[in-house]
Amino acid sequence: MDNLFQRSLEDLIKGFRLQLLGDSSFISRALEEIRREIKATDLSTKSTALHKLSYLAAIHGVDMSWAAFHALEVVSSSRFHHKRIGYQAITQSFHDQTSVLLLITNQLRKDLNSVNEYEVSLALECLSRIGTRDLARDLSPEVFTLLGSSKSFVRKKATGVVLRVFDKYPDAVKVCFKRLVENLETSDPQILSAVVGVFCELASKDPTSCLPLAPEFFKILVDSRNNWVLIKLLKIFSKLASVEPRLGRKVAEPICEHMKRTVAKSLVFECVRTVVSSLSDHEAAVKLAVAKIREFLVEDDPNLKYLGLHALSIAAPKHLWAVLENKEAVVKALSDEDPNVKLEALHLLMAMVTEDNVSEISRILMNYALKSDPLFCNEIIISVLSVCSRNAYEIIVDFDWYVSLLGEMARIPHCQRGEEIEHQLIDIGMRVRDARPQLVRVSWALLIDPALLGNMFLHPILSAASWVSGEYVEFAKNPYELVEALVQPRTDLLPPYIRAIYIHSVFKVLVFCLRSYFSAQESSSGSSSTVYESILNLVNVIEIGVWPLSGAYDVEVQERAKNVLGFIGMAKQDIAKKVNLQDNEAEACRVTAFMEDAFSEELGPISANAREKVCVPDGLELEENLGDLEEICGKFLKPVESDSVSCTDKITFSVSNLRIRDQQEASSSTSLPPKESSSLLAEHRKRHGMYYLTSEKNDPDSNGTPNDYPPANDLASEILLDPLDPKRKAKHRKSRPVVVKLDEGGESRITTSQAKTKQESVTDDESLSRDIQSALLVNKKGKEREKCEGNSNLVVQEEETSRIEKPQNSEKKKKKKKNGERTSGKHRSRRRSEVASSSEQVEIPDLLL
Amino acid sequence: GTDDHSSDLFWESRINMIHFVLLVSRQGKVRLTKWYSPYTQKERSKVIRELSGVILNRGPKLCNFIEWRGYKVVYKRYASLYFCMCIDEADNELEVLEIIHHYVEILDRYFGSVCELDLIFNFHKAYYILDELLIAGELQESSKKTVARIISAQDQLVEAAKEEASSISNIIAQATK
């Protein structure tokens, strides 16, 4: 009677729409009800409760993991209606960690063996979703049987489950693979579609192992008119062609046929994608594909436009002409409503950039950046920045233009890429000597721009501009104005670390001006009062501007401010004196000259692995035991214990003390004097690893050859000394300035790590591919046997496949197979390597090549 | 608990083309969810929230694909409902649009010009139909007629069983209404 008063799912849904309780309280009341009902012994009541729970879980995200056992109970019902509800609940809520999962095996087996095809279908659907390794192992015999079922409805569903089973339990491949391959020859379109789907996934995981089936796939590719099947086949061939390029020649023709024939855009697109990504050497096919892309681009349908652009970007690396041909459409797409379309267009435009059109394209893009929303605007900016700076500004010839462009970017209202612009401004300053005058001009304009100070995203740019102005002050038009800009009151909007850079730049400007003042006096003997006035003005402006900062909270700002003020204090008297008496060598003059010297050393770019390249100076012994040092130091240390210890003495004392203690510890704990210092070094390295630069071969002994690279800065200055290299240009009216580019040597490192990850991923799928390959071998053997039995259907097939197999080849294969059988299980690693070698020798029938 | 396994949204190995199917109304109400890749309940809610936010805000003239966390979501609006399917980058977006359309046509045929209410009240039917269309995230039946036939065969199975089981209680229930 319970059943009578139970609310059905429909009641629940209706109730939900009429309720006034609010969603969450209605749901919790419904859940209460369900928890009560689901405990009923009557399966109808139980299943209805479960059904309602599934609904709440699917639509309202209610947790239903607590009902796992009840779902199992419902599934065990003999009624189809209950089973269906139960299986739906299970597929919806079970996962690998569900505790009652172990209890489902027998129920699934029972239903897989059911005479009712719909029950079989429920069980298959369930297995395809929740199958674990255990379930896949235990039920693979049933799946195998169903793959040969006479009912196409069942066979189709069984095929759909196979992938899950293979994935969880690769050994099942041995059992099921043959049946799967047989299904490739079916006349039933639904089964074919399912099987091709399975092979599509298998091929994408491990193309090599599917290569022997290429003739079968090819036949379907030519014969089939089912778009769904054809799309899958194209995907398969695109994968196969990546491991066997000779396949491309064979499949290009039928693919072009489909491209010409079909009206289905999905198939056309798949053909296009296959051609541009995998058959890019086949000119005729590529031409046709690009023609199709153009058709997509001119369509009004945003989907086709997007896909057309997408296909172009796949083609771009190898067939840039295809992009260039469609430049207009690409530029037009930049103003599309759809952010996806815009982004694709941007990527394409960047792919087109060369040194000849970089300024044109950048101009177009800057205009779009001004009009765009913040997101796309910054996408544009970062794209331009990264393309232009690629490979040490490879495509930039006119650096004056590029530096101005960087300045322009800073003024785009939405610009948030301050850090990247900062980096490039400084980087160009260091690398490109000829760009410095323009760099200083642009920096000056940035420094006096009031808008920039108020935008925290742009502060890094100001930091770079101030550094550039200080470092290359010799190019400044008016140092007085520069100083005014650097000490303007609004700089208090900047974070302290940038203010510190500002002050330091002021210092550099000051030193530069004083130095030129003094040297002018020395040479011309007797300067005009206007020069004197102006230098005094400059000093005063700095003093007034920097003075408040000597009490700044931030210690960096404070210290630098005090440095400047101290220097001014010293110089001021001499400036005044100088005018009157033409004395030789005043104190300030000397110090200024010294300071200028300190600043005048050129800063160059530093290679990421510069440290490796520093060679060990002659006579420096890194491995030597420094035990004697204790004695030597001991002598000096004694007098230090007196009271009159200066500050610096104290420091040396503590440092040497520390060192001695360290050594004592080391010598007391271990007794290997010769390696002691190196072990200390190693320990230090271990403890403070993050302060060491990473390098793969930092030990020159390890690779046997001494490191004979010059130090990084030497290398830089060498290149710098060399003026314009005449070999490079000729082509341009304006010659490209020298860009200092260091041999970074980082590439090899990247590739090794990539190779590593690649290898790892290979091993993941290895077991599956190994099984597929062995299954294929069994399959071949099976075919041979059938041939002997005189199966006329298969004889034709066999002839096709065996034509290429030269006698010794097939012998080799058999032998290999024997080996594989013998070693199976025990010698995993050996077997693996054998399989690997066999995979390299997978044969494709001649008819395809 | 449910949250123990794989806290992130990425699954170890792909074994299906479609990762999930989502039906959301224009008001953001979920009408159907079907997950072919393992997501916890928490992740499911997060995905639904995130995606419906993005999709409902897209204008009508935009393309039907969105790039989302390294995947592609293909969606299409039919009347007041958005049908969404999540696939991998390399999969064919147009093909998925066709699958969506195919599903809608089958629903339409089954319910007789389908509307959102049909799916609300017969949410389980929409599931059963989807299960005949896709298995393990792969299209398995491209014939509308066949799907219709299979579904009605199963419906009859259920009806027959129901009548047999609860004919008396049915009558009583009718009488007491």
From TrEMBL, chain B:
Residues 17-156 form the AP complex mu/sigma subunit domain. GO terms for molecular function: clathrin adaptor activity. It is a peripheral membrane protein. It holds the Pfam family Clat_adaptor_s. GO terms for cellular component: AP-1 adaptor complex; cytosol. Keywords: Cytoplasmic vesicle, Golgi apparatus, Membrane, Protein transport, Transport. Adaptor protein complex 1 (AP-1) is a heterotetramer composed of two large adaptins (gamma-type subunit and beta-type subunit), a medium adaptin (mu-type subunit) and a small adaptin (sigma-type subunit). Belongs to the adaptor complexes small subunit family. This is AP complex subunit sigma. It comes from Brassica napus (Rape). The gene is BnaA07g36290D.
